[in-house]
Amino acid sequence: MEKKSIIDLNRLSQEEFRRADKISLVVVLDNVRSLNNVGSVFRTGDAFLIENIFLCGITATPPHQEIHKTALGAEDSVSWMYYEDTNTAIDYLHEKGYIVFAIEQVENSVALQNIQLDKNNKYAVVLGNEVKGVQQKVVDKCDQSIEIPQFGTKHSLNVSVTAGLVIWDFFKKLYY
Fold it and tell me: What UniProt keywords apply to this chain's record, in alphabetical order (predicted)?
């Protein structure tokens, strides 16, 4: 096996990416403090053609060198918006017809592998702060919560890892 070259990968330009069909998924970052996590979400969002990222509360916004370090330019291709208050972002998404999921361990959550998605619907997922998770007041506004089953000694995953798992799962269900 020989590694593929950059040319072999046939990547989209930023302009081609902006024009490309996206999956109907908005990722909402609720007070994510690590700029590396923010950059990683941009990069994953670029890889799987998400529609938009909403950066809320203390979540940093581009341009920023620390975001760029992990995003590697994806902060310039993936559309994003900033909201001071996450609930304002959720209200906007609901007004636009999105089904909003909190990615959080709560009563009556649905396991990620059991989520049924309809390609005709629009979706948003909310990922929370590295320590406190998604704010309770934000969870309360969401339509449902998704939980990623975990079987080890820890009860949480890094925000960027969680985003990768969730975005990939939504991509598989909405793109193919």
Answer: Methyltransferase, Transferase
What is Dmax (Cα atoms) for the chain?
A: 51
CB atoms within 10 A of CB 4: 9
Q: Closest by alpha carbon to 90, among 143, 37, 160, 159?
A: 143
Say if residues 26 and 49 touch (Cβ distance below 8 Å).
no
Total structural domains in the chain?
A: 1
DSSP string, 147-162: E----SS-S---HHHH
Structural domain span for residue 51: 13-147+155-175
**In this predicted model, what pLDDT tens digit does every residue of 46-61 receive, in sequence order?**
999 999 999 999 999 9
Torsions phi, psi of 106, nearest 5?
A: -135, 165
CA dist 38 and 67 (Å) reads 6
Q: Quote the tokens at residue 27.
A: 């990722």
Q: Hunting for tokens 């994953």 — which residue is that?
A: 44
Q: What angle do CA 165, 169, 170 make, to 5 degrees?
A: 120
How do residues 99-129 score in pLDDT, each as one tens digit? 999 999 999 999 999 999 999 999 999 999 9
Query: What pTM was computed for the model?
Result: 0.96
Q: How far is CA 2 from the centre of its chain?
A: 32
**How do residues 19-37 score in pLDDT, each as one tens digit?**
999 999 999 999 999 999 9
